[in-house]
Amino acid sequence: MASSSSSGITFKLHPLVIVNISDHYTRLKAQTLHSGESSSCAPPSNGGTAGSALSAPPRVFGCVIGVQRGRTVEIFNSFELLFDSKTHTLDRAFLEKKQELYKKVFPTFYILGWYSTGSDVEEADMLIHRSLMDINENPIYVLLNPAIIHSQKDLPISIYETELHVIDGNPQLIFVKSSYNIETVEAERISVDHVAHLKPSDGGSAATQLAAHLTGIHSAIKMLNSRVRVLHQYLVAMQRGEIPLDNSLLRQVLSLLRRLPAIESEKFQDEFLMEFNDTLLMTYLAMFTNCTGTMNDVVEKFNIAYDRHSRRGGRTAFI
Amino acid sequence: MAAAMETVESLVAHIQALTKPEDVAQLHSLLKQSQSDEALRSQGPHLAPLLADLDPAKHSLGYLYLLDTYLYSSISREQVAAFLPSIARFLNTCSAYHIRFASDKFISVCRCFKDQVMRQQTPIQGIIPLRSAVQKLQNSSEQLTTLHSDFLLLCLLAKCYKPSLCILENDIFEAENPKDLFLFYYYGGMIYIGLKRFSKALECLHNVFTSPMANLNAIAIEAYKKYILVSLIHSGQVPPFPKYTSATAQRNLKNYAQAYLDLTTAYATGKHSEIEACIQQHIEKFQSDNNLGLVKQVLSSLSKRNIQRLTQTYLTLSLQDISNSVQLNGSKESELHVLHMIQDGEIHATINQKDGMVIFHEDPEEYKTCQMVNQMDLSIQRLMSLSKKLTAIDEHISCDPAYLTKIGRERTRYEFDDFDSVPPKYL
After folding, report:
1. Residues in Cβ contact with A118 at an 8 Å cutoff, skipping those fewer than 6 apart
2. Which of A291, A312, A315, A316 to mutate to test the interface with B (most CBs of B within 10 A)?
3. Domain spans of chain B?
4. Interchain contact A294–B (C-beta under 8 A)
């Protein structure tokens, strides 16, 4: 049902949309789980569910809005929609009301399409898609796969368009997958960063917080290191002549290098090394204490186990 | 006789043939067999020319067996003496892999070598060969072998301390024989005293008398005496016994070192006259223990200690005042003392010769160099590996049945209410 798109439209997706969809889904999942466990079977409130709440996680539905400029479609925001599971349609009135409200705040945005969750496109989605076609002649369908696959490194988001294809003599609309890029503004970057570095909620102990913080820094430095190494290898290969010279890239590298150490004076070196040495000394002290503690334990155990003379009779007070 | 000679020659031929590493095990069993065979031993004295045929580097194992048989057969001292260069060459060039198959033979060869060298009164000849022997015999730099103490003994007798440093500086984690350990650290302590590195000497001597021992031994007593003297020189006082000293040592050592303990109390008063009186009183004891040199050093260290105490009170002081408070004779002598101490790095000061004042400074080390970073990094790494080893030992002891028995026994007597986590099997 999905092959790669040939429409030539570039999609730019903002992280806000991804966070919104994920948030919607998580909320709903938590609510249905909670209400499914309790004795009353009150139907869940927001969004729609397809099927029972306990067996399959509910699908969420909503609208994506943004701007289309020529061949570029930029998806900025999204909001949730009510889904009527009996008629398999979205609540129209609600949609229009929401659209009006958003138009007041963001006059340039208009409805680009809709989103849902799931692992793949389903048959029922085409109905919804068609119903949106009167608002936007070529709506897009953003699909988020909520299953957590640890080996998969890319975002589990896919964007589908519809194309008219002739299948078995009948022209039919089918979903085709398109590629997209992620576009961020500064505010989004900060919030995504914040979400990504959630500290453990019971991180009351300073040790775990420090460990988490240091792990974060360590992974950041590791990534920086690997990137620098890639650049270095590339430059060396260029020097050896294995790769044709690319002047624009060289200029970029040069500008990067110019941005490096801002301070080079000797006084800076002295102070820096002094602080470095202080930290090292503290680590050394901590290690010493640790080691001394272990040695103390070992010595005590050894004395108890092997020093016959002090334990002869056995009635010495064991404190 | 001819038959015996033939077996020997066939053996030599075998040795020369089996040189590949896979064949060493085979060669070893062959040699062990021939060892029990009388023929080889009877031919002992005549093995010398055969040995010349073999190459010590390639045929190390075979060479070792033949050499051992030769040296322990009935040959005269002169023959052994004549053979010394070959033994030295063997020790320098043999292959460590081969040697480890027959380590006891190797040790006996080295012992014979050492005895001969000592008999000839030229211990210096034996130093380099024995050092390479030690390095080849040990499985890792942390293991102590019997040869270590022999090697250090030779270095001490020859008064060449530098070659021994590379062996002494390794931390020892495994030892087979307690006597080896005691001797090693005792000689090591003496070498460090000779080099005037008193803190390292203290470490070594400390290891001797704090080792676990069921019965007191003479090495520990001597080590303890030297320990008292060196700690007086180095830090001005003798620290009490640490927790891990064995009870035997704690109870009995002091009885044998009474003279030294008197010296300690005299030193604590800080007066030259007291110390000199004490020395005179016990002078025969010190002399019989060969410690008189150290005792004299204790005396001279007193003035150093007093000058160091002055640095904590005064910022500047005149030379005359120094000589008065430290009981030296005149400002010239005190100037000399202070100069020596500055050169040795024991205090930080400047002498202003115009008006005879000494200005004391703080430690100028500001910890802002890259070398300091490297140094600390190394220390931290060393500490980390030590910590790992200690945790491993800790776990090992916790599972030791001797320890568990003792713990279990104590617990049942006093804590009836708590859960006894030691299984009843051990009680």
Report:
1. A59, A143, A144, A145, A146
2. A291
3. 1-136+147-152, 177-300, 314-360, 373-426
4. yes
Q: Which residue type occupies B217? A: N
Are B325 and B311 within 8 A, CB to CB?
Answer: no
Helix orientation angle between B146-158 and B178-194, rounded to the nearest 10 degrees: 30
CA distance linking residue A209 with residue B188, whole number of Å: 48
What's the average model confidence in pLDDT over B335-354? 81
CB pair distance less than 8 Å for B373 and A305: no
- Please say if the pLDDT value at position B1 is more than 70: no
Q: Is B391 left (phi over 0), alpha (psi -120 to 50) or beta?
A: alpha
pLDDT tens digits, one per residue of B95-144: 777 778 778 888 888 888 888 888 888 888 888 888 888 888 887 778 88
CB under 8 A, 24+ apart: contacts of B68-71: B68/B105, B68/B108, B68/B109, B69/B35, B69/B40, B69/B41, B69/B43, B69/B44, B70/B44, B70/B45, B71/B109, B71/B112
Tokens of B110: 């080295």
A302 by DSSP, 3-state: which?
A: helix
What digits encode the pLDDT tens for the residues B15-70? 777 766 677 777 777 777 777 666 666 666 677 777 777 777 777 777 777 777 77
Residue (of B111, B216, B161) closest to B208 by Cα position: B216
Q: What is the pLDDT of residue B84?
A: 81
Class level of CATH domain B314-360? mainly alpha
Q: Is A319 on the interface with B (CB under 8 A)?
A: no
pTM for this one? 0.65
What is the rounded CA–CA span in Å between residue B328 and residue A281? 40
Residues in chain A with pLDDT values less than 70: 1-7, 37-57, 150-151, 153, 197-206, 307-319
> What SS3 string covers B41-102?
HHCHHHHHHHHHHCCCCCCHHHHHHHHHHHHHCCCCHHHHHHHHHHHHHHHHHCCHHHHHHH
> Which residue on chain A is closest to B413 by alpha carbon?
A315
Determine the Cα–Cα distance for residues B144 and B81; give it in Å rounded to an integer: 29
The position carrying tokens 């530098």 is B162
> Can you point out the beta strands (E) in B260-401?
316-318, 349-352, 357-360
